[in-house]
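Our consortium's second objective concerns turning raw sequence data into structural hypotheses that experimental partners can test. To show how far this objective has progressed, the report includes one record in full. It was chosen at random from the queue rather than selected for favorable results. The single chain below, 202 residues long, was entered without modification.
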Amino acid sequence: MMSEFLTFVHLGFRHIVNPEALDHILFLLALAAIYRGRDWRDSLWVISAFTVGHSITLALAASRLVIIPQAITEFLIPLTIVATGVENILVRSRQRRAGAGRYRPVFAGVFGLVHGAGFAGYLQQLFTGSIVVPLFGFNIGIELGQLLVLSAAGATLLALDRFLSLLQVPRMLTSPYRLRVVTVSLLVIVLATRMAIARQPW
């Protein structure tokens, strides 16, 4: 039992950190792009909502209580990345925007439902018997992988902030923070759009 659990923890972790899971990594990067160290509480709510969302559909789809065509799921995942990147760019002043702290976790949770179906498509190929242990272990592995990806993203964004501050961009044009948000968001939008075009199910 324990060896099976650890096996699926490892598989879930490897699934997230594998370069082939670039779509999920890009989504986490898109979510993280707007946050700074002082925003850790807001980011925690968003990541928690994403975790709840993907855990729900991972359980439902892996147990075959809900059947979602994999081609549709794989197409929708990059669309969630594009939508997150666009939202990052369009919302300029989150502190002043009414309800800004409330809608983004909902936003992440709904998109988490889509990503959970993608995780389930992979998990279904790995077990034939009871799903309880594989499902729990795989989900734990995914969460550990997400922590690693988000830690790396946080360190990268911090380094990018410091680099952009050295450029001494005139404040009248934009702030280093805003430049970072737009740069990262445009990058993930371009990559995710290419994925969506390649995965279109029609």
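The partners drew two points from this record. Residues 2-199 form one domain. The helical segments are 2-17, 22-32, 40-62, 70-90, 100-123, 132-166, 176-199. Both points have been shared with the crystallography group to help prioritize constructs.
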